[in-house]
Amino acid sequence: MNSAKKRLILFDIDGTLITAGGAGTRSLDRAFNALFGIKDAFISIKMSGKTDIQIIKEGLRLHELTGVDGNVEKMKGMYLSFLREEVNNPWKKMKPGIADLLAILKCREKPLGLLTGNLEEGAGIKLTPFRLNEYFIDGAFGSDNEDRDELLPIAIEKFSRKGFAYTPAECIVVGDTPRDVRCAKIHGAFSVAVATGSYSKEELLRTDADIVLDSFEDAEKCAADLGMIEFKMNYG
Question: How large is the angle between the packed helices 178-185 and 151-161, nearest 10 degrees?
Fold first, then answer.
């Protein structure tokens, strides 16, 4: 009998699982314009790897709108409203190999979750067109904490309430940015970086990621790589 423990695998969304076709940026810009009459408010803000709340606050600071109570909450609500419209666009797509990889991992009964800067409701909106929500038991989101570095312990706590006991060292965090790597490594988790987003493989190789992949296109190989990671975590 194989008594090896299955590790918790946590996936980022944007740039890792999917590309939303610019829906997030357009929704933020539309929300800002609707509330404050400012167009293209986020054009100079780099968003990769940041939480939605962090991005919203940066936009408010940039346009000197931080002094008004309730602006963050107003932006969240308006953003989600527009996101429901904007996600239905012809440019959205799933990253190559993701559907097969998740199906393989589910078949092998791997516990899967999300670790993303998206608001929890926004994450669901983005994943719904691809029918990916069903693969993930729970997760940690930008609505749980605006600091991405604090999300891994939150994910672990949520899984513990569902009967899954994990320490950070028993988790694998998968993402496409240096911020995904950092939020794993500062807690001692294993980091898998994939060059399917805005960062090149060369840039990701300069991070502390334990493994850097070109893509998930060869789903069987990627599943085998994750299996090998679990073997090493279990047996050194």
Answer: 60
